[in-house]
Design a protein that fits this description.
The chain is of the alpha+beta class and 446 residues long. The protein is 28% helix and 28% strand. The protein has 11 helices and 24 strands. The strands form 5 sheets. Strands 16-15-21-12-13-20-17-18 form an 8-stranded antiparallel sheet. Strand 17 and strand 18 form a beta hairpin. The longest helix is centred in the middle third of the chain and has 19 residues. The protein is globular, with a radius of gyration of 23 Å.
């Protein structure tokens, strides 16, 4: 992948209820950007982001995964997260390093519990968000009903941007920003089509909510709105961008991750509207500034070894950078620099401010640690994981393997901040604790 500066990076966390299509969005984006040569399917167990054997077996995401996409001279780092509540620790890690969020909804099921929780989590993190109504090509999908639920639950900030119109198996997409209609062929190629009287009428039904959301971004636009004046295209784009960045506008896109229909328009929207990485506190997100990077995920890979995922907030990491750990005060040799894509990695010459990458074999670092300059040490906010609430006693199949099992569980606890492993002093039992039965089952399988 080509080099990208800080301003051209977009870190987007994918959130939503289990089965809403987060992984399919990432897969479609990778395919359209030619980062993969085929569209993987969850049912076939061959997607980029769900690469773990347990994920393939279960048919859903268990861990956070990265999917970097080059689009419109920008690098979009999609952070795919699990939808099931048992794996919310991974969601917390993803939200910690994201600069914006996309909440996926199933076009048939509508606003589910996972979407509500995702909304609350993003609100708490204070980052911009958009909504992706997936599976719009499904005969049972109902955009009108789902958008109505969104408006009722989240208010006038919800702004329709891409509206689907179904005619049998055919779907036409109306782009309310450009006021144009598009259709897609079987290969996902987009073609502009005429805005018929029927499409104009449907667009008009949503344009009121659209204009109201845009008008709320400035006093001047609000005056024009009340005076019944039309917004110019530049005013619309500027209003949407400002509203998205300050959280007063939540754009809604209808797409199909499975067929890739309109995912290109979603990617266009991300590059135009989503913010580039920002600093934290007094730290400016500048590649020429003093180094400050947060470790938000740790993986013990059987082939690569220990992999520490970092987001660089300031400065840049190069192979010659001393790996100074603010928590321990120790410096160790920098490992290999990698850009992860699912379960694969590409060697990186450097990781610049705003970007996300992996450093291998940093033995002294753990999730939540800050990598910084020894000349200007700084402590970044760590990752707030949910506390494990379901304990289970661990018994080995063979006597004498307790130490071996304990060693494995200690390594898993290092990877997963939402689990715990300890010995009960009263019963002398080894106890593993997690967020739910599925969480514990996945730990046992590993």
């Amino acid at each position: 992948m080509a080099d990208f500066n800080t301003k051209s990076i977009r870190n987007i966390v994918l959130l939503g209820h289990g089965g809403s299509g987060k992984t399919s969005i990432a897969e479609a984006a990778l395919y359209l950007a030619k980062a993969t040569d085929r569209m993987g399917k969850i049912t076939d167990g061959n997607t980029v982001c769900d690469y773990d054997a347990e994920e393939i077996k279960r048919g859903f995401s268990l861990t956070l995964s990265m999917a970097p996409v080059a689009w419109n001279d920008c690098k979009i780092n999609f952070i795919d997260t699990p939808g099931f509540l048992d794996f919310q620790g991974e969601v917390c890690a993803g939200v910690r390093v994201a600069d914006a969020a996309i909440i996926a909804l199933d076009g048939k099921a509508g606003v589910e519990v996972g979407a509500e929780l995702a909304w609350d989590k993003v609100e708490g993190a204070g980052i911009p968000k958009a909504i992706f109504i997936n599976k719009c090509d499904d005969p049972d999908a109902d955009f009108d009903r789902v958008f109505g639920q969104l408006s009722e639950q989240f208010g006038t900030s919800v702004c329709p941007v891409l509206v689907p119109v179904k005619d049998g198996k055919n779907v036409t997409m109306i782009d309310l920003v450009e006021m144009k209609a598009f259709v897609y062929d079987a290969k996902g190629k987009r073609t502009e089509t005429a805005m018929t009287a029927e499409l104009e009428s449907i667009a008009a039904n949503y344009k009121e909510a659209f204009n109201e959301a845009v008008a709320g971004t400035s006093d001047d636009l609000m005056m024009k709105y009340f005076d019944g004046e039309e917004f110019t295209h530049d005013e619309i784009v500027a209003g949407l961008s400002k509203g998205v960045n300050d959280g007063t506008v939540v754009p809604v896109y209808a797409c199909s991750g499975y067929t890739t229909d309109a995912v290109d328009l979603l990617l266009n929207g991300i590059t135009k509207l989503a913010p580039s990485p920002k600093g934290e506190g007094d730290i400016t997100c500048d590649a020429n500034g003093p180094l400050a990077a947060i470790c938000f995920k740790t993986v013990a890979d059987p082939f690569v070894g220990k992999m520490s995922y970092f987001k660089v907030i300031s400065g840049k990491i190069t192979p010659d950078t001393p790996a100074y750990n603010e928590r321990t005060g120790e410096t160790e040799r920098m490992g290999k620099l990698l850009f992860p894509k699912g379960g694969k990695q590409e060697e990186a010459p450097a990781i610049l401010a705003g970007d996300i990458g992996v450093i291998t074999k940093l033995s002294g670092f753990k999730t939540g640690d800050t990598l910084c300059s020894p000349k200007k040490p700084v402590q970044l906010k760590g990752v707030s994981f949910p506390k494990p609430c379901l304990p289970m006693a661990v018994k080995t199949r063979k006597k004498g393997e307790e130490d071996k099992v304990a060693s494995g569980l200690h390594k898993l606890a290092e990877e997963d901040g939402s689990m715990d492993f300890y010995t009960n002093k009263e019963t002398k039992e080894q106890i593993v604790s997690g967020l739910g039965e599925q969480h514990l089952e996945s730990i046992v399988s590993k």
